[in-house]
């Protein structure tokens, strides 16, 4: 029987949606005549706007417009009308499992570690020791399908590219020098490399003739502004000035991105840009490291690591040594590996 519609639920953050893109592509290629729909939150909708493997994006604004029971009921009614054949849920919340159940789909696939795993018809074993992309792709085991292409990708269009060009021209940014992107933000304080270190790194990069872009969302703008103010040379604060797809278009122009363990590193991977990822309270073994080859992870081996799967608002032992022990010179030397062909380190 021909499947008409498949729904994928991913209402988590930017990085999580990017790491779901190989699943979208794989399912669409396996079921070419089937419509692929996905539920996301407003903050991540832009990521998938030009994705050719998505037929419909459903936005669930669970913090504002769709907040509460009324919003949830409204969403469920909308989904039920679609008459999905299959629901796949990389997201592991109880709410996602309940949404899957209430769509009326006969086949509902999620992880056995989901808070609502008992609501799925097929429960896939969640393997903690593999990358999140590979975990997501394991969901298709219940469909007796395999997916070989595991590279995440964010698709940009001509308008995204032109918007970036226009911004660079308006800001009179020198793009003749090697371009470096820096993403100092994170939702979690303990996952943030100290601002003083970012200031020192950016100042040194600018002094060596690099053009440095600081990127992030509106919430990251103050930190980026302070970092720029401390530097001399070609350093530009673009936080809050670009959409996610425009940020991907900019990253395509950059030699490397320096980032905390945040969504920005996955956006760079999806753009085909080298990543230098600074890990502190979290560890790569959780499965959210830069996917693929020729990336660099910088971390310190400490008995207190990891202290949590997401990081936290403050260091549990009050030292934040996992980040403070990683010095700017170490990160700078890592940048040279991607930008200086004569560097032998």
Q: What's the overall geometry?
A: globular
- On the 0 to 100 scale, the average pLDDT is 95
The total number of structural domains is 2
Reading off the top of the CATH hierarchy, the class of the largest domain is best stated as Alpha Beta
Sheet-strand content, in percent, reads: 5-15%
**Uncertain spans:** none
Structural class: alpha/beta
Residue share in helix: 25-40%
CATH homolog superfamily of the largest domain: Glycogen Phosphorylase B
Q: Give a count of the beta strands, DSSP E runs of length 2 or more.
A: 12
| Overall radius of gyration | 21 Å
Total of DSSP H or I helical runs spanning 4+ residues: 12
Please write the string of helix (H) and strand (E) elements: EHHEEHEHEEHHEHEHEHEHEEHH
Q: How does CATH name the architecture of the largest domain? A: 3-Layer(aba) Sandwich
For the largest beta-sheet, the strand count, sense and barrel status come to: 6 strands, parallel
Summarize this, please?
The chain has 345 residues and is of the alpha/beta class. It has helices at 14-18, 21-30, 68-82, 94-102, 132-137, 158-170, 195-207, 221-229, 244-251, 263-271, 321-324, 328-339, and strands at residues 5-9, 35-40, 56-59, 86-88, 107-111, 122-124, 179-183, 211-214, 235-237, 256-260, 274-278, 296-298. It folds into 2 domains: 5-143, Glycogen Phosphorylase B (Rossmann fold, 3-Layer(aba) Sandwich), CATH 3.40.50.2000; 158-339, 3-Layer(aba) Sandwich (Rossmann fold), CATH 3.40.50.2000.
